[in-house]
Amino acid sequence: MAGVKYAVIVIVALLLVIAVVVVFNFLEARAARKAQALRDRAYRPGDPFSSADDDAVYGDPRQLTPADLVEIRGTTFAVRGIIRLTQSGYSWIEAHLDTGTGRRGWLSVEEDPDLEVVLWTELDGVTTVPGPPTVDVEGRRYDSEESGAARFTSIATTGVSATGNMRYHDYRAGDDRLSFEDFGSGWEASRGERLHRGEFRIYPSTPTPEGPR
Asked: In angstroms, what CA-CA distances link 71 with 78, 142, 178, 195, 198?
């Protein structure tokens, strides 16, 4: 009887050890899965240079719509209209800006591949015709950068038709930009300044609960 009792005790002890090992392995495997899930979320594929955080604070210029307000270097502009352009699958927008006090301009927004926002001011009296590899405008020489044609659609007040085709020719001199555009009524020249992300802020006309667009 003593031998049987001892054997039962040994068997029970072995079963307890096996149970403890099984539970430990289960908990260890679950902890490993949780750790892997955390690593997957922390290191999931993404653009390390994404501007999503800046967009949350300053608003997303790619989502501009008529009646939005844009503050640029302390001056507030209203968006009067939007032109959306496409060329061979590539797209960008031009927003018509107006302070209401006589100052107007255009804001171009494109990704190539990084987000680029440029404030354009129309130049009056420019008779230069684009095409040559270099042009001289208002005492400065600009080098040709790119040219082409695009399809466009227009909403609200832009000064161009609702749909159509346009031509453009862009030049550059250092950080300064010069652009010629023809929406069907001849070439118009504009000088551009690239804006850094902290130099403008968007106030949407229909704010969302999440904040600036």
From this structure: 9, 29, 23, 12, 10
